[in-house]
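> forwarded from #structure-qc
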């Protein structure tokens, strides 16, 4: 019960989402009977194959998609729409960055919409541009940046508006292997510094084990649900060379093989 009362805790009970169907008696479920508690400050992974409903569930938590029925709340307040306490980081940074704005202007965009004074915006953008490792690139435009740098800009912009919950939908899926590993390490560092609650969607088991404190396994759709939750009791930074990493990898892979 103490976890439920912790600040920035997400509680999901018997959550369902259906497609509209001509048959009211036989609705088409995207996700069905999802139960989950994500504790405040936790790094939680949603892991499952493509098309299993991970992104749908994440978008419901963000408030972008409405539920069909069940309960979905943050700190006992039902989620009915997007809120400043939650922010999404998408897989494709190009879709979320404004190409006509510089790095600094992109990072400050949300602050400007909130009418934060110019000097304060500059102070905040300086802080998060440095935090994500982009100091010296403030005046560049997105077209001048690599894929990894664009993702850093997207992350800095999200962090600048100070959400308590980060929702990340396969944010490194389009990056090359080396850049992806760098961004994974950076994300862990930023999470440890900011103490945000993070829900991270991936279909990559190695990525899940490198990042998450707990991993929720989603079943193959339709009517997906969380079938198992694994605790990852490994210290950061994590390495593939750790025998316990391989043991957990094998255990979770066997779970998928059985499904």
């Amino acid at each position: 019960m103490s976890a439920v009362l912790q600040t920035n805790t997400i509680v999901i009970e018997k959550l369902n989402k259906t497609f509209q169907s001509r048959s009211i008696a036989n609705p088409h479920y995207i996700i069905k009977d999802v139960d989950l508690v994500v504790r405040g400050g936790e790094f939680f992974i949603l892991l499952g194959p493509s098309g299993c409903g991970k992104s749908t569930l994440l978008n419901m938590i963000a408030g972008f998609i409405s539920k069909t029925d069940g309960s979905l709340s943050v700190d006992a307040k039902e989620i009915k729409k997007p809120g400043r306490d939650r922010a999404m980081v998408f897989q494709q940074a190009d879709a979320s960055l404004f190409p006509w704005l510089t790095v600094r202007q992109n990072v400050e965009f949300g602050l400007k919409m909130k009418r934060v004074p110019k000097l304060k915006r500059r102070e905040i953008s300086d802080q998060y541009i440095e935090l994500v490792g982009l100091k010296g690139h403030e005046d560049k435009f997105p077209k001048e940046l690599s894929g990894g740098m664009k993702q850093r800009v997207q992350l800095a912009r999200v962090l600048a508006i100070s959400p308590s919950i980060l929702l990340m939908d396969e944010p490194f899926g389009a990056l090359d292997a080396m850049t992806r590993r760098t961004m994974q390490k950076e994300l862990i560092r930023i999470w440890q510094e900011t103490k945000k609650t993070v829900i991270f969607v991936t279909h990559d088991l190695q990525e899940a084990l490198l990042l998450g404190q707990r991993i929720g396994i989603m079943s193959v759709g339709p009517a997906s649900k969380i079938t198992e939750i694994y605790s990852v009791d490994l210290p950061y930074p994590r390495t593939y060379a750790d025998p316990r990493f391989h043991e957990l990898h094998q255990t979770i892979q066997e779970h998928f093989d059985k499904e």
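QC bot note: The two ends are 31 Å apart (CA to CA). DSSP finds eight helices and ten strands in the chain.
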